[in-house]
Amino acid sequence: MDFIRAQLTRIPRITPVNLSASTVLITGANSGLGLAASREVLMSSPKRLILAVRNLDEGNKARSELMGRGKPTLTEIEVRKLDQNNFESVASFAKSLKGDRVDFAILNAGVMNGEFITSTDGLESELQINVLSPALLSLLLLPNFHLASSSSKLPSTPPPHLTFVSSGLHTMAKFPERKLGPGEILPALNNRAQYSQSDRYSVTKTIGLLWMRELASRVQSSDIVINAVNPGFCKTGLMRNTSGVMYYLSRVAQFLLGREVADGARCLVDAAVIKGPETHGLYLSEMQVKAESDLVRSAEGKELEGRLWEEIVALLGQHGLDMENLP
């Protein structure tokens, strides 16, 4: 019933704010929620909008669509390659922004697979795209956020925001791997023999929330507002890779209860631009702060935050990524 109530909640329009001196970054911006969020952000006329996309051709099509919305824009719209199935691509993307300010970022790219798929780095793809690469990117972008925080801005401009796109499905995670010993959670999740397709997406969104909470505890809200947002179950292609009963159930649910993509996108932009420091370290849904799952809010969840932080940082280090100067 909570799901139905949430899906039927009316999502209001957002009043544009002054972003004329700001840079906005959106991952997965060539389609779906990312593209719709880009449209919404453009209403606030940022100085610069960076579309981070896996496929540059698709990204350039999205840019052309945004540029041809019917009214001229002063926003500089850039398309940059970011393949979150590849750590080297994430690191190269962040390196390309060295010395640039980033005021607002929506880490939106995500996937739901129908089977165990191995990434370029030899890891389970859903885990890498939904958790590990966003975690890496969030660390690599911290200097860009700090630069934005210390730079001059208009009095009416909100403080820098780093927003992770979450999902209400995190509440359904069974996540038996959490009971394993130190250093054993990620190896289990990357083990084909232990893979559970029905639980994987929910688990990745749970771990993503735990990462967000731990990162927020290490960064002052006066410097960067870090939060997570659930856009709701939207009419996107997220579940196109699923199969069997899950695929058909998702199609029926989208038809009956699916939220329009524009409404979900407004939820993203509300969390990433409009909401203030009072949302630091918190989870939003339907444009309101909401309680996470019992696991995330529990003492066990708090312990998992630290354990998973250590495991993720160690794994990234094993892949040759610089994990010095962590917050």
TrEMBL record:
One of its GO terms (molecular function) is oxidoreductase activity. InterPro entries: NAD(P)-bd_dom_sf, SDR_fam. Signal peptide: none annotated. Pfam families: adh_short (PF00106). It comes from the Eukaryota. Keywords: Oxidoreductase. Belongs to the short-chain dehydrogenases/reductases (SDR) family. This is Uncharacterized protein. It comes from Elaphomyces granulatus.
